[in-house]
Amino acid sequence: EATHNQMPSLSTLRNSAITLLNYLNSVYWDPLNQIRNQAAAQIRTCLDDYMNAVESEEAEERSVETSVVHGPHSADKVGDNSNMFAVLMEEKKKKKPKAKDIENKVAEPEPKQKKQTVRSQVYFVKRLLNLCVPLDVVWDTTINHLLTSSLVPQSSKDFPCSEQSVLKLQKRLQCLLSALGKMWPGVIVALLNAIIDHLFVSCADPDRTT
After folding, report:
1. Could you give the CA distance from residue 187 to residue 143 in angstroms, rounded to a whole number?
2. What are the distances in angstroms from CA 94 to CA 65, 91, 102, 176?
C-alpha cells in the first residue's frame, strides 16, 4: 500500500512498526539473549568449578604438609606435650576376636564405597576453552567473574598485603590465565585494564562494596 498506492496514516505506520519490532523480538533478539545468558552461566560454572578444584588441591597440600611435620602418631612419641611418658606406659593388649564376630564379618561384607572422581584445575580450563559460545560473551563474563570472585581479593584477612599473598594468587590463577592468554590473545591486557578501572572506582568510593 505504501509503495504502490497512497501513503498510510502516521498511526498506521506506528502500529506496523511496533508489530514488526515485537516480531523481531520474539523470533530473533529474545532467543539470542537467551543463548547468550545460557553461555554466560556455563562460563561462570566452569570458573567456579576451577576455583573449587584449586581450593581442594590447596587443602590437600596443607594436609600432606601437616602429616609430614607431625606424623600419624605424634601423640605417642617421647617429648610430646600431650603424652610425655608414652614409653613408660604398657601397651594395650589387643582383644582376640570371637568366633561369632568373625562369622558375622564373613557373612556380611562391608559395602564398597564409591570413589569420588576429583577433577583437576586443568580439566575445567579445557572445558572452558571447548565451550562453543560467542567470543564477546567469553571475554565479558570471564573478566567480570574473575574480578568479583577470585582475582581481586575480597578481604584482607585471607589475602593480606604481602608478597606471599601475591604468590598465592599467582599460583591459583597461573593455569587459567596462561591458557586464556594463548587461546585469546589480548584477554590479559583487557583483564589488566579492568582491574585498574575496578581499583580506581574502589578508591574513588571507599564505601562501595566489592
Report:
1. 8
2. 31, 9, 15, 52
CA–CA distance, 155 with 158 (Å, rounded to integer): 6
CB atoms within 10 A of CB 119: 13
Distance CA 184, CA 128 (A): 12
HSE toward the beta carbon, residue 4, CA cutoff 13 A:
1
Question: What is Dmax (Cα atoms) for the chain?
Answer: 113
Q: Tell me the chain's radius of gyration from C-alpha atoms.
A: 31
Per-residue pLDDT of the chain in tens (210 residues, 90 and over written 9): 566 777 888 898 899 999 999 999 999 999 989 988 998 898 888 888 888 888 888 888 888 877 765 555 544 444 445 554 554 555 555 566 565 555 555 545 555 555 555 577 788 888 888 887 787 888 888 888 888 876 666 667 777 778 887 888 888 888 888 888 888 888 888 888 888 887 777 676 655 544
Cα 74 to Cα 80: distance, rounded to the nearest angstrom = 7
- Reported residue count of the chain is 210
- Whole-model pTM above 0.85? no
Give CA–CA dist 125/182, Å, rounded.
12
Which three cell numbers, joined as nine digits, stand for 123?
580439566
